């Protein structure tokens, strides 16, 4: 019977969780962990730490854990957490810890204790002599989790730190040389970019990467995988064409320009081109003389037609601030490619930001690929299991909840129009609110959250709004969303990092709220990803709490119009309410969501195809740069190239170390400048490469043909330029006058993330534009 039970359990897991890791090995170790508890409880704190240090000695340098070592790590971690936090780790948390220690992405439901599981895994890796980065989605969580888990680490003899934007170089270096370092993915990436530009070994802040444990792994590894982190140096003010912005502002959809159904592209009609040409002084946009203005018109049109205030961005404190669509927050330090950023600033008539020369960049996916060992944790990993396997070679381990989930997920309610849907949502909120149950409403964007809040206020249903305008208060807002009678409206719940506890933070009315039915979650539309739907639903039913969730949708929602606009005929709605019960409507919405997920995956794959070559080139160049940074390679090369001038320089500088550093700075300057030029060249190539498809050439192959020869010129060209600098620069008592020789690095540098490039470069979009231009020419 036991064998049949195990087989049945395994089959059920395979059916319910396709692509997930088998947990039998880990489950079999749990009794041994529990057996150690009485023995460890008898130890004084110093004795517990000593025991952990002895385990670390046995683990030092090990490439994998034995079963006994996994048991010991988990038993020590459970006891440390019990003493430090007053929390005895559940068996499922230890399963999560073992999954992370063995290099998997573990799926654990919201409220199941991922933070502690991740900390115990980080401590285990640290005991093995590995330096660990716990990668979070924002700076708040990095600091909160590091401070929260610090007493646990201390009992296990492990040091911990964190990095945040306000930290100095010395504070960063100290944090990175702790055994465990917490940091937002962007902050860690920015430090990687800064280290790539140093000219002295002592200025490096990061040691070599070893282990990454990624929190909200699906968000970081999938949603943000293609987002480039950028290091830039100032060139000049980023002035947009104000005249063009004024002209484009007057254009009307359908008359002067058209857009495609997915909202990725906009183009002028013949009437629009005529208006623009006349308004700009009678120029020919499609002639040689008007090519510069055409680029400005295209980018201004994109800003005008395809980017919406309070949906794609906010205007706050006189600045355009992008909104992260997956999280509903302001995307700090994020911007569009410079031309579009300036166009949106011109559209909103705010002060333009400085334009920068890109010194280096790295995608989030490439950043994580630097780590020899990667693991992750999230509440929704199964939905992206194939992508995690394809892009990272990671498998998903699904951890069962500590207490069975009893949340009631109700079928979607579908309406003919958004206005009818909104009325139904208001009615739903009112009827549930009368019972006293707390309500969490998930909206699509800032504008929708504020519109709903205004309508609720008019019928005396006050609510708390959580969106990009007040994301600084998010933890406090979420913490109280489970209070009796609370109504909370949020743009997105992914990666918020705070549990919604029934009864609020004090929990005084928890039992009463539970008896009423717990938290009721309402989605105002289906998201472009089923994972985001799941993350919103998952806020209810935490740790076996009662709760419910329902999504409202319309056949005219953006999701459907952008991805599946061809609605089957014969779908009828209720004449009074507009509600649709026809199963075909449900199928249409599910189809639209699958199409959206497919498009997103293809964009990810396409970005990955192009960036793989760039990352290989970057790795090769960095290997050479590292040799220059840590050796006398630069001095040796310059001596061979120009013995007489080198001897003169050597005579002026009596310290050999000073001589090597001067030569190093010269060669590194040219290497860095040539790499920056190479990135700019590749950007230009990629923007035009899809036109090659018109000649039946493969764009990716053409990109490689253009990129590879140019890259191989960089290292020899840098050596040539360094020798020329030595030949021409004036030698003083301090060495070479580098500034006079034109070797001036950017006096101001900054870091930011580039928003997913909105200029679609697919072959189909190229065809659309070419056809549009041909029509205008014919007319």
From TrEMBL:
Catalytic activity reported: ATP + H2O + cellular proteinSide 1 = ADP + phosphate + cellular proteinSide 2
Domain SecA family profile, residue spans: 8-584
Enzyme Commission number, as recorded: 7.4.2.8
Keywords per UniProt: ATP-binding, Cell membrane, Cytoplasm, Membrane, Nucleotide-binding, Protein transport, Translocase, Translocation, Transport
The protein's enzyme class: translocase
Chain positions recorded as ATP binding sites: 93, 111-115, 499
InterPro entries reported in the protein's UniProt record: Helicase_ATP-bd, Helicase_C-like, P-loop_NTPase, SecA, SecA_Actinobact-type, SecA_CS, SecA_DEAD, SecA_motor_DEAD
Domain Helicase C-terminal: residue ranges: 417-589
Predominant location: membrane
Record-linked PROSITE patterns: HELICASE_ATP_BIND_1, HELICASE_CTER, SECA, SECA_MOTOR_DEAD
Residue ranges of domain Helicase ATP-binding in the record: 95-253
Compartment annotation: Cell membrane; Cytoplasm; Membrane
Bilayer disposition of the protein: Peripheral membrane protein
Taxonomy, superkingdom: Bacteria
SMART domains: SecA_DEAD (SM00957), SecA_PP_bind (SM00958)
Family per record: Belongs to the SecA family.
PANTHER family in the cross-refs: CHLOROPLAST PROTEIN-TRANSPORTING ATPASE (PTHR30612:SF0), SECA INNER MEMBRANE COMPONENT OF SEC PROTEIN SECRETION SYSTEM (PTHR30612)
Function of the protein: Part of the Sec protein translocase complex. Interacts with the SecYEG preprotein conducting channel. Has a central role in coupling the hydrolysis of ATP to the transfer of proteins into and across the cell membrane, serving as an ATP-driven molecular motor driving the stepwise translocation of polypeptide chains across the membrane.
Record note on quaternary structure: Monomer and homodimer. Part of the essential Sec protein translocation apparatus which comprises SecA, SecYEG and auxiliary proteins SecDF. Other proteins may also be involved.
Name listed for the protein in its UniProt record: Protein translocase subunit SecA
Organism per entry: Amycolatopsis ultiminotia
This protein's encoding gene: secA2
């Amino acid at each position: 019977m036991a064998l049949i039970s195990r087989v049945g359990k395994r089959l059920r897991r395979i059916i319910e969780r396709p692509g997930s890791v088998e947990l039998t090995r880990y489950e079999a170790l749990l009794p041994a962990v529990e057996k150690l508890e009485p023995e460890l409880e008898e130890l004084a704190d110093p004795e517990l730490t000593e025991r952990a240090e002895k385990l670390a000695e046995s683990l030092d340098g090990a490439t994998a854990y034995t079963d006994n070592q996994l048991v010991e790590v988990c038993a020590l971690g459970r006891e440390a957490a019990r003493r430090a936090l007053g929390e005895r780790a559940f068996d499922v948390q230890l399963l999560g810890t073992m999954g992370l220690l063995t290099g998997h992405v573990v799926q654990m439901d919201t409220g199941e204790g991922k933070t502690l599981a991740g900390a115990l895994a980080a401590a285990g890796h640290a005991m093995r002599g590995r330096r660990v980065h716990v990668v979070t989605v924002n700076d708040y969580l990095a600091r909160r989790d590091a401070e929260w888990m610090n007493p646990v680490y201390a009992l296990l003899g492990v040091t911990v730190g964190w990095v945040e934007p306000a930290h100095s170089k010395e504070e960063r270096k100290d944090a990175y040389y702790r055994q465990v370092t917490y940091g937002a993915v962007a902050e860690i990436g920015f430090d990687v970019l800064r280290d790539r530009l140093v000219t002295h070994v002592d200025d490096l802040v990061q040691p070599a990467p070893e282990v990454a444990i990624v929190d909200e792994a699906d968000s970081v590894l999938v949603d943000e995988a293609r987002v480039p982190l950028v290091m830039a140096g100032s060139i000049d003010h980023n002035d947009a064409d104000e005249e063009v912005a004024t002209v484009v502002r007057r254009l009307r959809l359908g008359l002067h320009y058209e857009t495609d159904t997915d909202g990725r592209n906009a183009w002028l009609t013949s009437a629009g081109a005529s208006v623009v040409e006349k308004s700009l002084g009678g120029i020919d946009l499609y002639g040689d003389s008007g090519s510069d203005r055409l680029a400005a018109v295209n980018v201004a049109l994109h800003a005008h037609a395809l980017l919406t205030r309070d949906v794609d961005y906010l205007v706050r404190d006189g600045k355009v601030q992008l909104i992260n669509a997956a999280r509903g927050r302001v995307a700090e330090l994020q911007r569009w490619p410079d031309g579009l950023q300036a166009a949106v600033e011109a559209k909103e008539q705010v002060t333009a930001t400085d334009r920068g020369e890109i010194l280096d960049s790295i995608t989030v996916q490439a950043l994580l690929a630097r780590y020899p060992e990667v693991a992750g944790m999230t509440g929704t990993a199964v939905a992206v299991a194939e992508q995690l396997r394809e892009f990272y070679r990671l498998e998903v381990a699904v951890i069962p909840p500590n207490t069975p989930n009893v949340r009631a997920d109700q079928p979607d309610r579908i309406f003919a129009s958004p206005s009818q849907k909104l009325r139904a949502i208001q009615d739903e909120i009112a009827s549930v609110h009368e019972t006293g149950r707390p309500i969490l409403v998930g909206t699509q964007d800032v504008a929708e959250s504020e519109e709903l809040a205004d309508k609720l206020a008019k019928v005396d249903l006050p609510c708390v709004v959580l969106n990009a305008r007040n994301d600084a208060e998010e933890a406090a807002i979420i913490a109280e969303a489970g209070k009796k009678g609370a109504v909370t409206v949020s743009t997105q719940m992914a990666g918020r990092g705070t549990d919604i506890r029934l009864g609020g933070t004090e929990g005084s009315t928890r039992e009463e709220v539970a008896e009423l039915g717990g938290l009721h979650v309402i989605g105002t539309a289906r998201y472009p990803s089923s994972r985001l739907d799941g993350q919103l639903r998952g806020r209810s039913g935490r740790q076996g709490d009662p709760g419910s969730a329902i999504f409202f949708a319309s056949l005219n929602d953006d999701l459907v119009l952008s991805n599946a606009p061809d609605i089957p005929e014969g779908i009828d709605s209720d004449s009074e309410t507009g509600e649709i019960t026809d199963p075909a409507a449900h199928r249409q919405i599910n189809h639209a969501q699958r199409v959206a997920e497919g498009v997103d995956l293809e964009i990810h794959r396409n970005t990955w195809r192009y960036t793989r070559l760039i990352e290989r080139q970057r790795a090769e160049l960095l290997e050479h740069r590292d040799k220059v940074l840590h050796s006398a390679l630069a001095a040796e090369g310059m001596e061979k190239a120009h013995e007489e001038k080198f001897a003169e320089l050597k005579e002026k500088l009596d310290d050999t170390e000073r001589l090597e550093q001067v030569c190093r700075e010269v060669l590194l300057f040219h290497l860095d400048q040539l790499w920056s030029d190479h990135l700019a060249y590749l950007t230009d190539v990629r923007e035009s490469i899809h036109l090659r498809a018109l000649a039946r050439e493969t764009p990716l192959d053409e990109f490689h043909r253009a990129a590879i020869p140019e890259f191989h010129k960089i290292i020899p060209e840098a050596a040539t330029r360094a020798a020329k600098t030595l030949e021409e620069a004036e030698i003083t008592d301090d060495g070479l006058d580098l500034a006079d020789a034109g070797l001036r690095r950017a006096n101001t540098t900054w870091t930011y993330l580039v928003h997913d490039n909105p200029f679609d470069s697919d072959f189909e979009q190229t065809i659309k534009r070419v056809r549009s231009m041909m029509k205008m020419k014919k007319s």
